[in-house]
Amino acid sequence: xxxxxxxxxxxxxxxxxxxxxxxxxxxxxxxxxxxxxxxxxxxxxxxxxxxxxxxxxxxxxxxxxxxxxxxxxxxxxxxxxxxxxxxxxxxxxxxxxxxxxxxxxxxxxxxxxxxxxxxxxxxxxxxxxxxxxxxxxxxxxxxxxxxxxxxxxx
Length: 154
Prior knowledge:
Largest sheet: 11 strands, mixed
Number of domains: 1
Distance between the termini: 39 Å
Radius of gyration: 15 Å
Structural class: mainly beta
């Protein structure tokens, strides 16, 4: 199994998204030179990266962000943000295959729950934007990673 950021809790409420978990398969001491951050990368525009401090306590993290940040002006809807923990904030460090290095995908892989996308459903939170109201909703992908969808409220 690849190193990743294993989620223990996902709390979407009160206009915020709070994530609690720990690094799995990665030694945080070995790479302690730079601070850790939660990165949200727009799937259709990977150059668009939001970063939030995610200090570690050992291998554990507890990070929160305002969901309104995920619905900025000029973003094409529906939009999907993929979540990573990383020590690089710009998203410009890539390996030979072009994939970002040093990013740990945020997800929940160590439980025995299969097909989380259909059974672990999170509530959406409404956000008012200049283009009208949107709904910001975290979800598990088919690979049990966490992503966030921003779609027009219906």
